[in-house]
Each structure stands twice: as C-alpha cells, then as structure tokens.
Amino acid sequence: MNTTATADPVTRARDIANFVGFQLGWFACVGGAARGMHELGAAIAALIVAVNVATAVRPVRELKLIGCALVIGIIWDSSLLASGTLTFTSGLLMPHIAPPWILALWALFASTLNVSLRWLRGRIVVAVVLGAVAGPLSYGAGVRMGAVEFTQPVVALVALAVGWAVFTPLLMVLSARYDGMQEAR
Question: Coil, strand, or helix at residue 72?
C-alpha cells in the first residue's frame, strides 16, 4: 500500500496537487453555484478531472471509476432533490435531476480516490466513518455558502451521513478495481 509517509517525492507531490485541485474545484463548484455561476465551477472541476485522467497510467480505468461515481451521484442527489430533502439554488436543468455542478463534484471526488485518498483503501471502517462525517459537513458548507438548502435539516443530515457512510467504502472498492494510476501487475 502506497502512503504519503513512505512515498517518493513525486508521488507526494502528485497527492498534494490532487488534494489542492479537489479543494479548488470544490470551492469553484459550490461558490459558483451560490453566485449563479454554476457553469464556471463545473467547467473548472471538469478541467481538473481531465488533467487527472490525462495523467493516468491507464486513463480508461479512471474514466470507468468516474462514470461509476457519476451514476451514484445522479441517483443519490436526484433522490434527495425529488424527495424534498434538499434544494439546489442554481443550475437545475430539469426538475428533480441533480444539477451538473454537483455531478462535477462527484467526478472530482472520484479523481481523488486513486491518488490523494488511496491511503483509505482497505480501511472500510475508516471509510465509513469518514464518509458519515465528511459528507454531511461538505453539504453543510454548501448550505452556508448558499449553493444548497436543506428543506428538512435533520432528515438531510441523517440521510447524507448514511448515504456517504455507504458510498465512501463502495467507491474505495471500485477505485481498487478501476485503478488507472498504477501500472498493471
């Protein structure tokens, strides 16, 4: 298992760049959506994801992972939207379908799984806890920034905690299957 503590300087630099890219993309998407510029945020996230895929050893595998995350994301966030649990403040193209900027975040998150979040592989309990905490915190930050509204805050936070407690380890398992960052063995 490759961790940043034992990784070579190039791997550490890539992990850091990947983490920073994710943070920049997240702020671009959420901040853009909060200000009615959701297309700009989605475009920035898409560019970051494209760089990640372009630098992958096996880009098709990375694209498969991103595709899996997008399927999960569109079903999950559209379900929360359709149920009235949350509302996206901008960017909806169709009623009850998650907007492109939130789907760009799912792709962006997927682009971290084989790079800066690789350390999480095989640590299912840690992935469950991290997902249960970080998922609601991320959406909560989106609420504070004005990109999302919880119409039922307690229900939303519980649903997000449960959902992300499932999705994070699931995506980590998928990342091992579709690892485009590591040479074939």
Answer: helix
Residue 92 tokens read as: 């909806």
On whether the pTM is more than 0.70, the answer is: yes
Look-up of token digits 């640590």 = 123
Helix (H, G, I), strand (E, B) or coil at 57: coil
> What is the DSSP code (8-state) at residue 99?
-
Measured CA distances, 16 to 8, 11, 83, 105 (Å): 12, 9, 37, 18
In sign, the C-alpha dihedral spanning 159, 160, 164, 165 is negative
The encoded tokens of residue 93 equal 């193209």
Q: Closest by alpha carbon to 51, among 20, 73, 78, 75?
A: 20
- Over residues 112-153, the pLDDT tens digits come to 999 999 999 999 999 999 999 999 999 999 999 999 999 999
